Amino acid sequence: MESLTEVEDILSYLNRGFASFISSPYIVVEIDENPGAGYLSWHIPGSTLLRLYGDLLRDVGIIRDYEALIMDLAVKGITRDRHIVLLDEIDNRHAALAYMVLKALGFKHISLLNGGKVNWLIHKGPLCTCNGHVYSSNFNQRDWLNVVVNLKDYFVNFDQVYELVTNGNIGGDTLLIDVRSPCEYMGSDVDIWGHIPGAINMPWNLFLEPRTNRFRDRDEIVKVVDRYGLSQNDNIILYCRTGGRSALVWFALTELLGFSKVRVYLGSWLDWISRGAPIKRGEEP
Known about the structure:
alpha/beta, 5-stranded parallel sheet
């Protein structure tokens, strides 16, 4: 499955030598919110760094101007003719968000490194503490002239969610799913927590193996989805705190199960509460 790359696939090239890895079909890209705790602490040899805020997003919920973003990616050798393998410094939530953005920008060959850095350590993969690596690029700007940037099939914004909530369409034509922890959803401990009215709670970590951070087997993911009564025909909007955990669930539903009508509220909870929109506390949607 191209959407997931296993640690063993990357190791098979590295074990033949660094030159073998650099000439492989893969470019490994680490997407970090905190590079100091991630890439700059240690990284997979030959991988390159993208900062979540600055390189990919301007701020929570705001993707950089796509033309400038594409040019900056190209400078790092991250182009559509290579297979981009994404991971991050946590549990692949930022990598999944980057996956969605690159898909919207027209990239075709992208995958997540299953289990990310945790799984890399479990497999005792080599670690690098150098300043980093940048791939060479044969980027031709003309190759992008006909690219259609298609954010609307991947993301929704505040206005769209607010309209659905105020018109009472949540739970009817559209399911709104909060993938944060039950504590965040209920708002029982911290005043800023709670949920968007009408949202149901389906925690993101149900989709990952707790020890390895790998996605659970497909049959186990299907059981989770069935437990919450979701079907492939549902129109689903996901949100969390800043969009990362939602992107992980989007990946599980869309890329692993084949759901076709799933989008992420990119600004998520921080955007919602910053606008003074209505919130609800407790266990009920």
